[in-house]
């Protein structure tokens, strides 16, 4: 299977029958997923099998799910810091919700 996220929450998946010994690059070509994708976007894609990055020369096996990954737009650490700055410490974190009065400890 070859998967490509064309937009947030829009994933195109194509099941492809591949001959033994075919590489990841060959699987992409066989799937035809990149025919309508601009060349500039294709050059930025990374390859992964079930979320683990692989090289285009990786030999595909039965049951592999080849994913074409777009680069991140925002670093997740930076996004978390910005979200925390907007929300403040009272509405974020594990103990943000008041669970009501607790019985005294004995």
Automatic annotation (TrEMBL):
Coiled coil start-end: none
One Pfam entry name: Ub-RnfH
InterPro entries recorded: Mopterin_synth/thiamin_S_b, RnfH, RnfH_sf
SUPFAM superfamilies named in the record: MoaD/ThiS (SSF54285)
Family: Belongs to the UPF0125 (RnfH) family.
HAMAP family recorded: UPF0125_RnfH
PANTHER family: UPF0125 PROTEIN RATB
Name of this chain's protein: UPF0125 protein RAE19_00075
């Amino acid at each position: 299977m070859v998967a490509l996220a064309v937009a947030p929450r829009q994933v195109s998946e194509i099941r492809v029958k591949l001959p033994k010994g075919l590489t990841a690059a060959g699987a992409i070509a066989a799937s035809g997923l990149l025919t309508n994708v601009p060349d500039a976007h294709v050059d930025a894609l990374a390859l992964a099998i079930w979320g683990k990055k692989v090289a285009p020369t990786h030999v595909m096996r039965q049951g592999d799910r080849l994913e074409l990954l777009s680069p991140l737009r925002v670093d997740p650490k930076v996004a978390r810091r910005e979200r925390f700055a907007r929300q403040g410490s009272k509405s974020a974190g594990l103990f943000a919700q008041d669970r009501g009065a607790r019985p005294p400890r004995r």
